[in-house]
Amino acid sequence: xxxxxxxxxxxxxxxxxxxxxxxxxxxxxxxxxxxxxxxxxxxxxxxxxxxxxxxxxxxxxxxxxxxxxxxxxxxxxxxxxxxxxxxxxxxxxxxxxxxxxxxxxxxxxxxxxxxxxxxxxxxxxxxxxxxxxxxxxxxxxxxxxxxxxxxxxxxxxxxxxxxxxxxxxxxxxxxxxxxxxxxxxxxxxxxx
Amino acid sequence: xxxxxxxxxxxxxxxxxxxxxxxxxxxxxxxxxxxxxxxxxxxxxxxxxxxxxxxxxxxxxxxxxxxxxxxxxxxxxxxxxxxxxxxxxxxxxxxxxxxxxxxxxxxxxxxxxxxxxxxxxxxxxxxxxxxxxxxxxxxxxxxxxxxxxxxxxxxxxxxxxxxxxxxxxxxxxxxxxxxxxxxxxxxxxxxxxxxxxxxxxxxxxxxxxxxxxxxxxxxxxxxxxxxxxxxxxxxxxxxxxxxxxxxxxxxxxxxxxxxxxxxxxxxxxxxxxxxxxxxxxxxxxxxxxxxxxxxxxxxxxxxxxxxxxxxxxxxxxxxxxxxxxxxxxxxxxxxxxxxxxxxxxxxxxxxxxxxxxxxxxxxxxxxxxxxxxxxxxxxxxxxxxxxxxxxxxxxxxxxxxxxxxxxxxxxxxxxxxxxxxxxxxxxxxxxxxxxxxxxxxxxxxxxxxxxxxxxxxxxxxxxxxxxxxxxxxxxxxxxxxxxxxxxxxxxxxxxxxxxxxxxxxxxxxxxxxxxxxxxxxxxxxxxxxxxxxxxxxxxxxxxxxxxxxxxxxxxxxxxx
Lengths: 192, 560
Prior knowledge:
Chain A is mostly helical. Helix content of chain A is 48%, strand content 8%. In chain B, helix 6 (128-158) crosses helix 7, helix 14 packs across helix 19 (526-559) and helix 17 (451-465) crosses helix 18. At the A-B interface, helix 1, strand 2, helix 3, strand 3 and helix 7 of A face helix 1, helix 3, helix 6, helix 7 and strand 1 of B.
């Protein structure tokens, strides 16, 4: 009987009290982060800065392959083992597509993160090399110059944390929002 | 290469900076009457009062073990009920259905045994209330159970009498003095870097290309903190700590790695203070650390070299094996996370272990098979002490002297119990793996054909037996066969060795310590460290080499 009361108390303290208190505190100190780091444009939520989106058009930089097509109500990867034939098929197919989208490149020049599925299927980042690799494709589709886009990519490179931890990377959603802005600015100039 | 080296060096330094004072703190929290006691006592008195536990008398090992089992069983029952009716309970914004019976069986055992094997996906399988009241709650209580066992064993080695402490007291102290304060700090740090903490389950955004994206949210940070501090490992989301909401930044990755490593790494120091042989604590720590570094080196090198098939397909091999990994972590932080999560038997993953290269995947498998390279909160240290006693016994046999550990004679009674605890582990891995590979129920779940399929099956049972919880997650394991078989393995892997080691504690505490003489075999020297290392390595190798050859090594040879 005492053990049952004790167990119920554990549920109340650690299952309800602790998460509730932490939620209150987090909402108070870091409301932006606590609610999913949402980016708003004209008052409308357009993205989370932490979650990748499925970019298909050539006018945008593309993220990594995702077996769940960046459906963020789920997460995960196909869990292919290194010797799985389906891994080979998918990688070869993706490589062919990249060679069509970015002509004049060799197969072994495609950065590895563009042809491998991330662990979460929601990876918001690509490597700087993978972003630079796509510049010709985006330039052709948007009409922006390759130099301008290269500069844009370089401005969007996040370095290692504290200069040591993690890898240099580019947030694809943020980069594409910047691309979109450049395109809009140019069309406004053309109109006026 | 050099970048990985420096990342590792800094993280090891941070670990030492945290683990050494934490070891001293836990000694104070569990063994001494002082400032820590005065600070937390008022809170604990309220808990005792509300649950009607009037006095905290010392217990024999049998009452201690009984109290442990009773509390665990009641929590299992209550949680089973909650998950079975979660659909009608509040805080279900994601519209999770009531959980299916065999999956519920598996899930509650998984979290109560500190395993956190997950045959469901958090986004769709659990309500927000279940994530809190069942999952987060069990993350505290299972870790506290493990810590209590370690404290009881250390107490048995540091005092003489008939009792090994009071279970409720150790359990409450583990929660209130250790896990809760650390969890609060880690939660706030994680939120600062972007881990969500909210009661709403969904958020919809309209994407740049004009589509709609639904984001799963929830009280993630509070779960994430205790998930690592308690060496639990069960993710809020299906993709676990590779999910950008669970682990958004290289620094959250560092925080999570240190969180799961700090308590197992601190316990040797706590032990050193308690038995007044701080050097011996260091010997145990150093032995485990050397084993860890060797394993880390192998997985890093294998992943950095990448999948040899990529080159054969005409693709680049630069950048290593990024399948199943996140760009922000890259190869170095993914490899380190893999080594820590299977050493400290946490089981959270920041990359998909199923997609590791064959030799890279061998490392987490081997670390769980050894099950004592740091190990989970409390139970890992108990395993280390168990191996230390085996090492003492073997050395005693070799030189023809009665083996002693801290002045207590290790006699047949203790050795029998230890051998039971030791042999259960390979038995509950190898027997069910063989059975699963012989039947359709087992083989139908394999998603990666060939030798890798053997690894998938063996990994699942190894992870269950070691109470780790990571998986080669391609395995289609949400079936009655897998739910029930791994559920049984988790129960046996957890409670048989806990009971056996509590019995050892009960036996050791009664022994009259023999004074140390010049002829005593010393257990606080580098020589003993080497013997301990060899004992761990030889027992592990003799038991598991054949199955490692059939799985990862064979796969390696076919794609080389």
